[in-house]
Design brief:
Layout lengths: L5 H6 E4 L5 H11 L6 E5 H14 L3 E6 L6 H10 L2 E4 L2 H8 L8 E3 L6 H9 L4 E4 L2 H10 L4 E6 L6 E3 L12 H11 L3 E7 L3 E3 L3 H19 L6 E3 L13 H14 L6 E4 L3 H4 L3 E14 L6 E8 L8 H5 L6 E3 L7 E7 L8 E9 L6 E4 L20 E7 H16 L6 H13 L1
Parallel strand pairs: 1-19, 2-19, 3-4, 3-12, 4-5, 6-7, 7-9, 9-11, 11-12, 14-16
Antiparallel strand pairs: 2-13, 8-10, 13-14, 13-18, 15-18, 16-17
Helix pairs in contact: 3-4, 9-10, 13-14
Length: about 425
């Protein structure tokens, strides 16, 4: 096992002190062509997020949601830190297994799985997987009869960026007990309950409610002869600059202490944006501009700017993740401020990044920065209209790299069978030393 492959190492810059993203941006914008957008990735930011997680929710083992950002450096970093993974397809499973991650550190957390993907998971010993319907149970019994099943219930926040309850999760009162009985009659091994309150949740008390409902289902299953030992509390955790998991961690820890005081029950989660949102900064460039005149006065009514990245690439998060990216300018722009619209580079009028914002007048080749661009951007981007996708420039501090290499050595010494818990303990000792 190696923290970074040779190809990845060539893309990662090691810095002596802390990773200073503003200074890196200043350097790159002076050196690079203005033709193409690019990302600055701060690996140390992901490491700090992991440290905060294990300090604030020590019982909850994170299973990173690969769909959020499947960049290999992201996945390799989290694998080395001892995080586990939430995979939704055989493609994601293959990507994580290729990093040397043990199959027991993967949950196949797509309640509706293609048969070929079930066969792939079974052939590669990925046994833990979710379900929320009787039909899925029959399919699992056919293709993966020794699966460790986790029943996904619906308990959704009223305030979430991306609600998921319309698509996944069974009703916890009527459907869930019935599905547990059906699984029992089919002699399938159900080991626990999962839920997802919604991506980008801002209604944190919903976790308490969901955990209490899960407790009731644990108790019900015991009456049927099951001994559930896994609770998956899903995702929904904030990850942008200026946010914190302190409040949600307090609520979750309180609920776990009340409803799952027995430490024999394993608690896992599926954070995505928490780990990567703030680690990626996007740099774009003004390629064209247009002044729109007021016909009555002949004066400028609105400025329109056309960047070299848009909704078909990095800003797909506007369409698919309901985000509202905020531009940040480099340098001291002067002059009159205008109502402005920011567009992407394609020929589609849907390709709008910001509808209306007040900005000082920008010039061709001015840089425009967007923070918090690590979640649900890169994996969904396409080269529509022939425009190239942004490159990613990765940075890591020397101290963090040495710590990661030390963790890799620990894993190698145990023939890559070091448990998630052991790696997390080793990581904490290194960081806190």
């Amino acid at each position: 096992m190696k923290f970074l492959s040779q190809n990845e190492t060539e893309l990662v810059q090691v810095v002596d002190g802390p990773v200073d993203v503003p200074a890196i941006i200043d350097q790159l914008t002076n050196e690079l062509s203005t033709e193409e957008p690019f990302y600055v990735m701060d690996i140390d930011d992901i490491v700090r997020k992991h440290q905060a997680w294990i300090e604030k929710m020590p019982r909850v083992v994170p299973h990173y949601a690969v769909k959020c950002n499947d960049t290999e450096v992201v996945c390799a970093t989290l694998a080395t830190l001892g995080a586990s993974f939430d995979c939704a397809s055989k493609g994601e499973i293959a990507k994580i297994l290729a990093l040397g991650v043990s199959p027991d550190r993967i949950i196949f957390a797509n309640p509706m799985k293609p048969s070929s993907h079930l066969r792939y998971a079974s052939a590669n010993n990925v046994k833990t997987m979710t379900f929320d319907s009787e039909i899925e149970l029959h399919k699992i019994r056919k293709f993966c009869p020794d699966a460790k099943l986790v029943l996904r219930i619906r308990c959704e926040a009223e305030k979430a960026t991306c609600p998921l309850g319309k698509k996944f999760g069974c009703d916890p009162v009527d459907e869930a007990p019935s599905l547990i009985r059906i699984a029992r009659s089919m002699n399938l091994d159900v080991i626990g309950i999962s839920f997802h309150v919604g991506s980008g949740c801002s209604d944190f008390p919903i976790y308490y409610k969901a955990i209490s409902i899960a407790r009731d289902l644990f108790d019900y299953a015991k009456q049927l002869g099951y001994e559930f030992n896994l609770l998956d509390i899903g995702g929904g955790f904030p990850g942008s600059h200026g946010t914190s998991i302190d409040e949600v961690a307090l609520i979750i820890n309180t609920a776990l202490d009340k409803f799952f005081a027995d430490k024999s029950v394993r608690i896992i989660s599926e954070p995505g944006r928490y780990y990567v949102a703030s680690a990626f900064t996007l740099l774009t460039n003004v390629q064209s501009k247009r002044a729109c005149l007021d016909p009555a006065t002949g004066t400028i009514d609105r400025m329109m700017y056309y960047l070299n990245d848009g909704v078909y690439a990095s800003f797909n998060c506007i369409l698919f993740d309901h985000q509202y990216p905020q531009p940040r300018l480099i340098g001291q722009q002067s002059g009159k401020t205008y109502k402005s619209t920011i567009w992407g580079p394609s020929c589609d009028a849907l390709d709008q990044v910001v509808e209306t914002i007040n900005l000082p007048e920008l010039q061709i080749e001015d840089w425009v920065v967007f923070d918090n661009m690590g979640a649900y951007t890169i994996p969904i981007a396409s080269p529509f209209n022939g425009f190239p996708l942004p490159k990613v420039f990765c940075y890591i501090s020397k101290n963090t790299l040495e710590m990661m290499e030390h963790l890799t050595t620990l894993a190698d010494e145990s023939l890559c069978n070091t448990s998630t818990a052991d790696l997390m303990i080793n990581y904490e000792n290194v960081v806190c030393a």
